[in-house]
Amino acid sequence: MPIRLIAAYFLMITGSAFAIVTVLGLLRFPDVYTRIHAGAVVLTISAVLVTMGTAIYVWDFFLSAKIILIGIFFLFSNPMATHAIARASYKREIALPKEYEIDAYSDYLGRDV
Amino acid sequence: MEIPTETQPEVESLNKLMKKTLISVVLAGVAFALYQNFSLMPGYEGLNVGLSNYIIESGLKDTGSLNLITAVLYDYRAFDSLGESTVIFGAVSGIVLILSRKMLPVSSKGLSFIVKRTLGIMTPFIALFGLYVITHGHLTPGGGFQGGVILAAISIIFSIVYGSAFDYRRYSPQTKTALETGGALTFLGLGLAGIFMEGAFLHNLGFLTAETGTLISAGSIPYINIGVGFKVGAGLAIIFYSMIQKTFEEDF
């Protein structure tokens, strides 16, 4: 087995491990914000690692470039969507952010629009 | 004064009789035409020897379209696709008529700065992808309906992320209505051109064919794709705008 395939399989298996971590977090964490934090993992790390592994696995210039572009799209879109969901649920006071001892985000809310 | 009250029921019954005979004559004519039409259809000969086999074998030679689904949708059954886009037009008209009391929704401030800036980077690529799906409908999977939905998603992104007044300033409902009507007119115009130049409604235009696999080939299929794409995109955007009568007062 060439070393290229070993690297590809290593990246894919690591991505799958992060996906399993995401499922564990979604099941075990207590409220909305920690679950969003866990759910963001599956696209920002897991899907990007799997796309990198696939790009190494096919090893053809145009195909790999397309797959890596998809990975870059994930890197752009998923943190933005997670941010939008978290901000909306904070402003709607889902899961009561006032109950936290440290609430640093309320200091910033007046400034970023 | 008494004569009309006596003769009116007779006239009404005569009118009803006339109506019934006319309706039965028309129904009999339609039934005869349908019987003639269905008697011409080939019988079912199994999955491997029927009409699908013919399309798989000679669809590329007949239409010049590499995507056989597009070949069926916009060449063999283009009349059916015209009916589908007419259904979309009827749905848009009905939803606008029922739901929209006023065309311009109340403005909102939109989402946060991070989302606005990220979508400012990503939206041109979404538009490029939508136009790619529309214009390459005869070469790769996709086509007018799918690409039109992607183009409509851009309008929805604008009104959710940047506030509804932003999209209204860029593409007003009048512009969208003009785009939708233009798409439908493109479709109908190509159909009429098929009558005049090839002898059948929506016949594939022969002088537009080129080498198979290039972007401008496959007769009139790419142009019908473009018309259907703009029609579907503008129609879905109009439906979305009619449904957000009361927008969000608070900003998320």
TrEMBL record, chain A:
GO molecular function annotation: sodium:proton antiporter activity
Membrane topology annotation: Multi-pass membrane protein
Keywords of the record: Membrane, Transmembrane, Transmembrane helix
Transmembrane segments: 6-27, 39-59, 65-86
Alphabetical list of InterPro entries matching this protein: PhaG_MnhG_YufB
Cellular location(s): Membrane
Main location: membrane
Residue stretches in coiled coil: none
Keyword Transmembrane helix: yes
Family, similarity comment: Belongs to the CPA3 antiporters (TC 2.A.63) subunit G family.
Protein name, entry field: Multicomponent Na+:H+ antiporter subunit G
Organism: Halanaerobium saccharolyticum
TrEMBL record, chain B:
Topology of this chain in the membrane: Multi-pass membrane protein
Subcellular location(s) of the protein: Cell membrane
Broad class of the protein's primary localization: membrane
Sorted UniProt keywords: Cell membrane, Membrane, Transmembrane, Transmembrane helix
InterPro entries referenced in this protein's UniProt entry, alphabetically: CPA3_antiporter_subunitB, MnhB, MrpA_C/MbhE
Domain of life, source organism: Bacteria
Residues annotated as domain Na+/H+ antiporter MnhB subunit-related protein: 114-236
The keyword Zinc-finger belongs to this UniProt entry's keyword annotation: no
Entry's transmembrane regions: 21-38, 82-99, 119-139, 145-166, 178-201, 221-244
Pfam family name, one: MnhB
Signal sequence bounds: none
One GO cellular component term: plasma membrane
Every MrpA C-terminal/MbhE domain range: 25-106
Family listed: Belongs to the CPA3 antiporters (TC 2.A.63) subunit B family.
Protein name: Multicomponent Na+:H+ antiporter subunit B
Source organism of the structure: Halanaerobium saccharolyticum
